[in-house]
Amino acid sequence: MVILETRVAPEWVDYNGHMNDAEYARVFSLAVEALMDRIGLDAEGRRRHGYTIYTLETHLCYRREAHQDQPLAVTVSLLDRDAKRLHAFFELFDEECNLLATSEQMLMGMNRQSGRPDAFPAPVAEALADLPHADAGAWPELAGRTIGIRR
């Protein structure tokens, strides 16, 4: 499911002539915001439910360079979820559907009043059920990776 479409902004390009590594994280952060909008946690939904989502952990993999003004599309699928957490996998593609980067993220639902983790409000949980879910045995190849020097 495409969750975000954007372009590489001029200010995202670094001294190497391509999108700076930190800007990939920005694009994935924008994708989380788009996901929140999609599941009913836009500004109005956050106010109404007194609820938001925090990022607990992220694992970014860079595959290809992106360049100024290049169209970008981010897809999302859920790897797992429980009452208050989402294990989400985002993929960043160019206009030719080349994979540019991935971001695996653990997201936590938060009660804004208490500042503590809390279960997703019922309408949000229902919207989450409609998102694409990867089967346990069919995760994307780059999901679940660990970082280390292979010997």
How would you explain this protein's 3D organization?
This protein is an alpha+beta fold. Strands 1, 2, 3, 4, 5 and 6 form a six-stranded antiparallel β-sheet that branches. The N and C termini lie far apart (36 Å). The mean pLDDT is 95.
Strand-residue proportion: 35-45%
Mean pLDDT: 95
**Continuous helix count:** 3
SS content category: alpha+beta
Q: Tell me roughly what share of residues is in helical segments.
A: 10-25%
N- to C-terminal distance = 36 Å
The residue ranges in which pLDDT falls below 50 over 5 or more consecutive positions are none
Query: What would you report as the Rg, rounded to the nearest angstrom?
Result: 16 Å
* Anisotropy-based shape: globular
Query: What's the number of extended β-strand segments?
Result: 6
Largest sheet: 6 strands, antiparallel
- H/E element order: EHHEEEEEH
Protein name: Thioesterase family protein
InterPro entries: 4-hydroxybenzoyl-CoA_TE, HotDog_dom_sf
Pfam family, one: 4HBT_2
Report a brief summary of the structure.
The chain is α+β, with helices and mostly antiparallel strands and 151 residues long. 22% of the residues lie in helices and 35% in strands. The protein has helices spanning 21-38, 43-49, 122-129; strands spanning 2-7, 51-62, 71-81, 85-93, 99-111, 116-117.
What order do the helices and strands come in, and which of them pair?
Blueprint: E1 2-7, H1 21-38, H2 43-49, E2 51-62, E3 71-81, E4 85-93, E5 99-111, E6 116-117, H3 122-129
Antiparallel strand pairs: 1-3, 2-5, 3-4, 4-5, 5-6
